[in-house]
Write a structure and sequence with these properties.
- The protein is an alpha/beta fold.
- The chain folds into 2 domains: about 140 residues, 3-Layer(aba) Sandwich (Rossmann fold), CATH 3.40.50; about 70 residues, 2-Layer Sandwich (Alpha-Beta Plaits), CATH 3.30.70.
- Helix content is about 45%, strand content about 15%.
- The protein contains 10 helices and 9 strands.
- It is globular.
Length: about 250
């Protein structure tokens, strides 16, 4: 009997010590849960999803609007069509590598349900929501007092504001900082109209931005930002050597 117990203990210990390295060697290990489930597949959410995917961050978008889901699929984004808190989602929504929830949706009722639901899954520090509109300030404060969750994601901007910026031609851009191009240079380049959404530090840890004033990016960090279209046009003119059209000179008399 002592030999049997020794054999069981040795087998369990050996398996626990070698399982993860062997899984990594065979490339079958489950990735770390640093990805994002985005509630919403609207144009704003798709832009953010594409930027995160470019950084090789696991991203899944969930929406009940078929047109939004169809567009997300056409852009090669992983998407779930349906309510992410439904019974169907509990068995069919793949959350492999997902450990955070970003609520970027105009559906207020669904936003609240998803917030409460995923608090138990991901924890309060990993469930992030946008600010409500001015007309909903009272309700937002009541919700914040109840669950202490409303954190003013993306510098306290509302969904309506993000949608308005996207309709004006704002795009999501990835920028790497360096000694030659600092964070101040980045802000000046876009006339301080750029909105930083995520920062990626040198350890490749991606963090959603809650306040522009609170972030202090360093060199070699990467910024994921919403930038205005005019800055993009000026950059193209500078890179190509083009200049704004000048009126033709009058013909000599």
């Amino acid at each position: 009997m002592p030999l049997i117990f020794m054999l069981i203990i040795a087998t369990v210990t050996l398996q626990s010590l070698t399982a993860r390295p062997l899984a990594r060697l065979l490339k079958v290990a489950e990735p770390a849960e640093y990805g994002f489930l985005i509630l919403g597949a609207n144009p704003v959410a798709r832009k953010i999803g594409l930027a995160l995917k470019k950084l090789e961050v696991p991203v899944t978008l969930a929406d009940t609007n078929w047109e939004n889901v169809k567009q997300a699929r056409m852009e090669n984004l992983q998407v779930y069509f349906g309510n992410p808190v439904s019974e169907h989602a509990s068995t069919h929504l793949d959350l492999t590598g997902i450990g955070n929830l970003l609520v970027i949706s105009p559906y207020k009722h669904m936003n609240s349900l998803a917030t409460y639901h995923f608090l138990d899954w991901f924890g309060k520090d990993s469930v992030l929501t946008l600010a409500e509109g001015d007309q909903d300030q009272k309700a937002r404060h009541q919700t914040a007092e109840k669950i202490q969750l409303t954190r003013g994601l993306f510098d306290g901007v509302s969904y309506a504001k993000l949608a308005s910026l996207a309709s004006q031609g704002y795009t999501v851009k990835t920028t790497q900082l360096s000694d030659e191009f600092t964070f101040e240079d980045f802000l000046d380049k876009y006339d301080r109209q750029a909105m930083v959404l995520f920062v990626v530090n040198t350890r490749e840890h991606i963090t959603p931005v809650k306040s522009m004033e609170a972030i202090k990016p360093e060199k070699d960090w990467t910024l994921v930002s919403l930038v205005p279209p005019q800055a993009r046009k000026e950059r193209k003119e500078r890179d190509t050597g083009e200049s704004p059209e000048q009126p033709p000179e009058p013909a000599p008399t």
